[in-house]
Amino acid sequence: MSARAAGGIGPVSGDGVIVARDLTKRFRRKVARSSRLLQRLRGRREGDSGGTPRDEWIVAVDSVSLEVRPGEVLGLLGPNGAGKSTLIRMLSTLVEPSSGRAVICGHDVLEAPAAARACLGVVMAGERHLYWKLTGRENLHYFATLYHVPARAIPDRVEAVLERLGLTARADELVERYSTGMRQRLSLARALLHDPPALLLDEPTLGLDPQAARALRELVLELKAEGRAILLTTHYMEEADFLCDRVAIIDHGRIVACDTPAQLKRRLAAHRLFRLELAGLGHDPERLRARLGDLSVVSAQEDAEASVTRLTLAFSNGRHDASDILQVVFAEGLHVLGFSVKEPTLEDVFIAMTGRALRD
Amino acid sequence: MRAAWAVARKELLIMLRYPTWSVGLLVWPVLFPAGYVFFGRALAGPAGEGLAAFEARAGTADYVGYVLLGTTLWMVLNSALWMLGSHLRMEQWRGTLEANWVSPASRFGMLAGAGAAQVLQSLTLLGVTLIELRLLYGLAPRGSLALMAVLLALSVLSVVGLGLVFASLVLWVRETEAMVFLVRGLFTVFAGITFPIDVMPPWMQAIGRALPLTYAIRSLRGVALAGWGWDQVKVDALAIACFGIVSLALGIGLFRAVERMARQMGSLAQY
């Protein structure tokens, strides 16, 4: 059954360059024939009349809707196996959706896949997506032809992306001699050859050293500033925080939250930690608790040598903030040596939304 | 067309980056038929008295030429078939299939480019082989070179269609070895590369008649060794052309179906 027929999805409106509506992908996990036979034989021997194992349907992506506008970076944040890559593959026409609809620059990926692909620059996860026995320049010449860059424009276009990605000096070396970071940059150079309005970046900084990852992130911000719509998958929360205008948290194929990183973290006001450093020893944190009922003491340490007490406090609901604590502290006549607030991270948000850590 | 040319150029460039390929190109065309040639010499007896029996069956006493033409065609068409058949598998193995398929280029155009690169390699193999066989075995075709070129072109067409069929099957089952051995075995035994097929039992001859290589070998042998003209080879040429048309149509249909199935199963990148 076609995705359109199954989904009954109406026309896609809005100004999204990359649009998904109720996109779902189910895969059949086949039970090996040998396992079936073995199970059947075992069942007979043990007098078990139970059925033999059947094929299972795995839902890799479950009714995902999203929209990426020009000049926006939308991050898909989730652990391995959450469905990020399957979603990217559906949007790039490599995997056919089971239901729902995906549209790139107004082109439905099922009805006009070639037109959709022409609008897309794709960087797949991993470094094997280039020809290692060709030079960087030869790779780009080859892919420029596949992306319908006019023959006369190819040398200039290739030179321009090589220059932009800082690969000119090594352009005539075989890719097998490149570092992981250079290969990743070459993949991005390839994705930019035809100047696409939409980019799909699947784990673009995976395996890169911190310096290379940082350079690539800065480039992504440049591409965003040029007005490109960028959908980026990552399981690095710092990357999502740094790069993305909005972050969609995906788990078990479903988007469980989608908002700006700041808004997502604001939802977890209760996870904000207040660190207080007080002069002297023997302070009783319960006196503070008595004044602010929903305050909890996460930890209390005394440094006898420095004659300092360090308290880590939190509110069980989000109604109070830092000024409430300071008011109470000053009212108690305590001498404050230091005060800081630790905001919740996207990882905290992820754990709160899914009940597990990003790297589980 | 541009995609086809880009793929052909890329494949040839990659091939040139593995220079040991040239060793195989030079050595194999001479070694492969040598075993059959010496076997024939042993069977013919010290004075070649057994050749009369061979001539009665094969229509020529030139068993060396007979074997050389058979093995040469087998090598050329076999390499074209398998290089094209395993092209998508090779792209999966390299990890580049998805990178190609997220581009807007026509997938048939890309496959045609791979086919063109394989045909060019096969023609290079043919050229080198003919030169070596002339120098080492004294092989000198008698018939029309133009007619041989036409027959060869038709044979290549049928092999490209079969290659497309196998490229699709390989994408489906994600394994090439079993099919390589099966079809290579069929071609080696049933197409009569070193003997006339009528020495086989009738059921084996029937299988031989279902293989395009049988007609290609028979007609090209006739032209090269016996100087046959168009009238004598037109039936074989028609058979080869029919094989080509049917296998191309089958290949295109199968490729479309398997490519769709691979997208539904999400198995394009799996190997």
How many distinct helices of chain A? 13
Find the count of extended strands of chain B (DSSP E, 2+ residues). Answer: 0
* Helical content of chain A (DSSP H or I, runs of 4+): 25-40%
N- and C-termini, Cα separation of chain A? 35 Å
Beta-strand content estimate of chain B? under 5%
Poorly predicted runs of chain B are none
Q: What is the oligomeric state here?
A: heterodimer
Unreliable stretches of chain A? 1-11
Query: Which term fits the overall shape of chain A?
Result: globular
Kindly state the number of beta strands of chain A. 14
What integer value in Å does the Rg of chain A equal? 27 Å
Give the count of helical stretches of chain B. Answer: 12
Helix-strand sequence of chain B: HHHHHHHHHHHH
Which two chains have the most extensive interface, and how many residues on each?
Answer: A-B, 37 and 30 residues
**Alpha-carbon distance between the termini of chain B?**
29 Å
* Helix and strand element order of chain A: HEHEEHEEHEHHHEHEHEEHEHEEHEH
What sort of overall outline of chain B do the alpha carbons produce when their principal axes are compared?
elongated
Strand content of chain A: 25-35%
Structural class of chain A: alpha/beta
Averaged pLDDT of chain B, please? 85
Helix content bin of chain B? over 70%
Describe the protein's architecture and organization.
The complex is a heterodimer of chains A (360) and B (271). Helix content of chain A is 34%, strand content 27%. Chain A is α/β, with parallel strands linked by helices. In chain A, 40% of the residues are buried. Chain B is mostly helical and 271 residues long. Chain B has helices spanning 2-16, 21-44, 51-58, 63-85, 87-94, 97-101, 107-137, 145-173, 177-190, 202-209, 212-226, 230-265. In chain B, helix 1 (2-16) crosses helix 7 (107-137) and helix 2 runs antiparallel to helix 4. The two termini of chain B are 29 Å apart. Classes of the chains: A alpha/beta (360), B mainly alpha (271). The A-B interface holds A 25, 27-28, 60, 86, 89, 92-96, 114-115, 117-118, 120, 122, 124, 126, 128-134, 138, 141-143, 145-148, 151, 174, 190 and B 2-3, 5-6, 9-10, 13-14, 17-18, 94-96, 98-106, 110, 260, 263-266, 268-269.
